[in-house]
């Protein structure tokens, strides 16, 4: 199965990774069961229902071909992928604000991580941007840090953006 055969201009392609695999309790005993936890990140283009149906079909095929195989399928968290089009007024204002403040535009790109936008924005016309002073290369890592100067710059940017957006 594939999370999405579609490519999004900012978010790229969907991903699926097996991040937790547990089974057994002793080195000399063959495990009678295991638990596998996948992290599936989607992009707009293919519904989650389609992906869930494809996964359930694969498990049913495995059960049909091996009478001893049993599987349970449970969705732990189901949040949609979200994006704001680059022509949206907030995005254009964010870029204009970057030009005014730093003489450069913030780069338009997407991330595959979770944000509150996945909870707050679906079903609404609320635009959103993700912006911060951190370095994505160290995000959620033991050596994560933020330079104080970048915090000050980001604060000035967000205050100016908020003031302009409110007008």
Key terms:
167 residues, alpha+beta, single chain
Draw up the topology in text.
Elements: E1 15-23, E2 34-41, H1 48-65, H2 89-102, H3 117-120, H4 148-165
Antiparallel strand pairs: 1-2
Helix pairs in contact: 2-4
What is the CA-based Rg, rounded? 21 Å
Summarize the helix and strand pattern as letters.
EEHHHH
Give the mean pLDDT: 89
Tell how many strands the DSSP assignment holds.
2
Structural class: alpha+beta
Terminal CA distance reads: 47 Å
- Helix count equals 4
Give a quick account of the main beta sheet: strands, pairing sense, barrel closure: 2 strands, antiparallel
Strand content: 5-15%
Strand order of the largest sheet: 1-2
What portion of residues is helical? 25-40%
Identify low-pLDDT runs: none
Q: Rough shape? A: elongated
């Amino acid at each position: 199965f594939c999370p999405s055969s579609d490519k999004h201009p900012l978010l790229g392609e969907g991903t699926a990774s097996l991040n937790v695999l547990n089974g057994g309790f002793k080195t000399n005993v063959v495990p009678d069961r295991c638990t596998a936890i996948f992290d599936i990140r989607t992009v707009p283009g293919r519904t989650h229902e389609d992906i869930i149906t494809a996964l359930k079909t694969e498990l049913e095929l495995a059960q049909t071909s091996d009478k001893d195989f049993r599987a349970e399928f449970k969705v732990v968290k189901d949040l949609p992928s979200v994006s704001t089009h680059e022509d949206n007024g907030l995005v254009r204002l964010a870029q204009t604000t970057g030009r005014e403040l730093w003489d450069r535009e913030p780069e338009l790109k997407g991330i595959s991580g979770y944000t509150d936008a996945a909870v707050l924005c679906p079903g609404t016309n609320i635009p959103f941007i993700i912006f911060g002073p951190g370095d994505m290369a160290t995000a959620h890592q033991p050596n994560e840090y933020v330079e104080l100067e970048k915090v000050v710059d980001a604060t000035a940017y967000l205050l100016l953006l908020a003031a302009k957006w409110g007008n």
